Amino acid sequence: MTAPATHRSAEEIGRTTQGPRPLPPLGEQRAASEPLTVDTVLPNGLRVLAVHRPAVPMVELRLRIPFAGEESTHSARAELLSTTMLTGTQRRDRVRVDTDLARVGGELDAVVDPERLSIGGSALVDGMDVLFDVLADVLTGATYPDDEVRRERERLVERITVARSQPRVIAREALQRHRYGDHPFTREMPSAEDVARVTAEDVRELHARAVLPRGSAMVLVGDIDPQRAVDAVAAAFHGWNSDRSAVELPPLPEVPGGDLLLVHRPGAVQSQIRLSAPFVSRTDPAYPALQLANLVFGGYFSSRLVENIREDKGYTYSAHSYPEFTPGGATVLVDADTASEATAPALLETRYEIARMAVVPPSESEVDSARRYAVGGLLTSTASQAGLASMLMSLAGMGLGPEWLREHPGRLQRVTVDEVAEAALRLFTPSRWTGVLVGDADRLSAPLTALGGVRLP
Amino acid sequence: MAAPQLHRFTLPNGLRVLLAPDRSAPVIAVSVHYDVGFRSEPEGRTGFAHLFEHLMFQGSESLEKLAHFRHVQGSGGSFNGSTHPDYTDYFEVLPSAALERALFLEADRMRAPRITEENLRNQVDVVKEEIRLNVLNRPYGGFPWILLPPVLYRTFANAHNGYGDFTDLEQATVEDCAAFFDTYYAPGNAVLTVAGDLDVAATTELVHRHFGDVPAREVPTRPSFAEPPPVGERRAEHVDPHAPLPALAVGYRLPDPVTELDAYLTHVVLAAVLSDGDSARLQQRLVHRDALVTEVSAGCGLFSPLDARDPDTFTVTAIFPPAVAPDRVLTALDEELERLAGDGPDADELARVTARWVAGLHREHDRLVSRTLAFGAMELLHGRAELIGELPRRIAAVTAADVAAAAKAMRPDSRAVLTVVPQGGTE
Lengths: 457, 427
Hints:
With 457 residues, chain A is of the alpha+beta class. Chain A has helices at residues 10-13, 74-84, 94-103, 128-141, 146-163, 167-180, 192-196, 200-210, 226-236, 287-299, 304-312, 340-359, 364-381, 385-396, 402-414, 417-427, 441-451; strands at residues 37-41, 47-52, 58-66, 107-112, 116-124, 217-222, 260-264, 270-279, 316-326, 329-339, 434-439, 454-455. Chain A has a six-stranded mixed β-sheet with strand order 1-2-6-3-5-4, sandwiched between helices. A six-stranded mixed β-sheet of chain A has the order 9-10-8-11-7-12, sandwiched between helices. In chain B, helix 10 packs across helix 16 (400-409) and helix 12 (326-343) runs antiparallel to helix 16. In chain B, the strands form two sheets. In chain B, strands 1-2-6-3-5-4 form a six-stranded mixed β-sheet, sandwiched between helices.
């Protein structure tokens, strides 16, 4: 490499005459102000949560409609519904939906998963009424025009093909089957064959049957007067009505621990490690302690797992351990992608760190660091309108509200080091874990057989 | 948008400092932008700027390995860094009680990073895993940011892969790192930005206290990366072992974002007219009317608009079914550009683009970390962070005639076309 004429050596660069300096202490933390909030249920059964957060002249909208279905073809119909619901109403065609939104700097987007239909959007706050009008128009009058459904069905098949070529999607689908068999919770992406058979009439029928306000929740955050925003929602959505309630997914069976499953992906140069174990919901009294135990294990960068398999061994670019909240409970998921030759060693170290959490409990400084990260993370992630709206929506999905957000720092402060150790022993018992590995079995089988606890394809 | 009052000063060692107070939430962000990106790395050392970014997290005189991460996260914050064509940024966002600590962490690695053989080898492994994750083991990896530049550009600086070849990464030495740091990471080659819940006088004092004794070093003369626009249409194919559908990327040259900012912004508007939303021209034509493509997108910059100096790239990308010949997509694109060149966008189209742009800026900058990085990048690339607040007005001033002229200049005889040949099939 062409160096400048003269430069210092690395050793000279890393040293000053003054020597190392002390880390400054933390200052006094100012509390976040309590925003004006309205949390109410409209006569049609829709829960509306509106929060005044005036930082920028925008309004953020989140709508969650429980959208579970038992039939094996439900996900194909639901997926096509979500991709076509904004393509036509009695009053607007697809282009008109977009142009009306665009004029007020607005956007709306619908996505569906096995639990819910989620509609997210935003607009300049002056255009809030237009945002509500377009959304109400879609919810009460989506027509699913034949030609739009036909075209979106073609595109959906193509997009599913692309999605299923992604290693993370392959791994996720394998993990879901391994954990839950054929449970509806596993149907995150329909098969191309099922999509091809869905008709416009099927989608219209599903909309009439399942896009319901009762049991659904809407969050609004922005430069709004919360009560006036709720009144505006009540007026705009008064025609959205049904006596029936939106369908929740029933509680999931607990994930049993057991052998990992190796899934063959020929020619892969990197493998996906995906492990899982039972966790607890946000409302469980043990949640704060388990949250901290999980952070210490692999829930943030300064965790045992990341410091081991990335910063010490260089086996992976990133490793994460995080809760997935499910109907009636939760699981914890561990993700790491690693070169084929590093896969068995990375699994060995990950198993070691799981067992070490159980038998070498987190130290006081590990717990304090995780605690400050958890408390600070709540503050920084909810400092923006969009961040707060998404957090409140995810809480509302569990029947919780802003009070949970307000009280959680206190819960985290009260957790003792002993309680974290107890939680760690419970969560990180190795026999409670299971998972999948996706990679080139021709290269992985021999070392994984040697390690044991892995079922080969 | 209500632009915050910006305060700026320069330390005697040359460090430019920008303060953007906003007391609405008790959070703070600190970023340092160094004026070196992957365009500056020498031949034989592709990926070096990014590798070096990783090494800046590996400890400094007062901080053991891992200490940086632990101090940021253990103070309730989060951190990251990223390497761009013309700059490299480092940042933290934290509860405001940690302001001085964040300044200390950035100052310590600006003054005396600890670069060791062991950490270098460790981070070469980590970066190789990053490249496997984002490029080698997935469909459309590096599309189009790695694949398109070698078709559009001729010089090494503009054409090469900023993630780097494995052989180059493996050959990087501690000596290379020392030379790179001494050359490019001088305080006079950087911008420090502090935004959020801060008091200007107190923060000014803290900045002096922590950065004041970082020794001044010579600042390198910034080279020009200019090269002439392509003569003719340059074409190339890339075989993607994982992709299931063909794709194409079309690259055009953009006006100089620094010296011809309004002309550049005209292209930002053009990109939105072409592909932003269901009513945009390419969505209507390619996705719906002709049903040629699965997805189409147009945009300025290989990563985002206003993220680089000259030369910069206007891209159009599409993914489409195997039954569609790439030239049909190109022909439809050319016809739409020609139509815009003839009639220009109508007034309502322009008004919609402006409204969405203003809204998008509000949303982006409501995130403190995005706002901080935007201020720092604008201060570094344009010398004026205030531009952020002026963008809505300048976007709104773009006329139909401007957009028509820009569309007219996007000729097939001066562009790059990269075709992705899928070999993924069903896995």
